[in-house]
Write a structure and sequence with these properties.
4 helices; about 140 residues; Beta-lactamase Inhibitory Protein, Chain:B, domain 1; alpha+beta; single chain; five-stranded antiparallel β-sheet; about 35% helix
Length: about 140
């Protein structure tokens, strides 16, 4: 009887997703701050120092390194990112996937200052949009 009761409670808890699930991070940790520091002409050692060891580096094709990042949040949101770096004469010659990608909140861990700044920008933009809707011309003149 007790076993049936415990199993029933566990089934209810699992159905409500109250049980905490650990985040899953696989591959390289790819942060935009690191990618912004990459410059063409850097040596392999400088790239390894900045980005870490590539996840996919073929011994048969030494001119290409792939950094692959995967993150699944406890809520089930999946974020993936792939950065490919090409080398010519042991210097960085081409980069793919370095541009900022939207919806990478799971992969990047922004600092508190960045989060607060983004929230302030969003709040001020919402206030401007609300003021613009009040005026017919859409032009809002703010006092000095």
């Amino acid at each position: 009887m007790r076993l049936a009761l415990v199993l029933g409670i566990l089934a209810l808890l699992a159905g409500c997703q109250i049980i905490y699930k650990l985040p899953t991070r696989q591959g390289n940790v790819i942060e935009q701050k690191q990618l912004d520091q990459l410059k063409l002409g850097m040596s392999r050692e400088q790239v390894v120092y900045l980005m870490g060891t590539p996840l996919a580096a073929s011994p048969f094709r030494t001119d290409r390194w792939d950094y692959i990042g995967y993150y699944k949040s406890p809520r089930g949101k999946v974020s993936e990112r792939t950065v490919t770096l090409y080398f010519s004469d042991d210097t960085l010659s081409k980069m793919e996937g370095v541009e900022p990608v939207r919806n990478t909140a799971g992969i990047e861990n922004p600092d508190l200052k960045t989060v607060i700044g983004e929230e302030k920008k969003a709040a001020s933009q919402d206030a401007r949009d609300a003021d613009a809707e009040k005026h017919e011309s859409g032009v809002v003149i703010t006092p000095q």
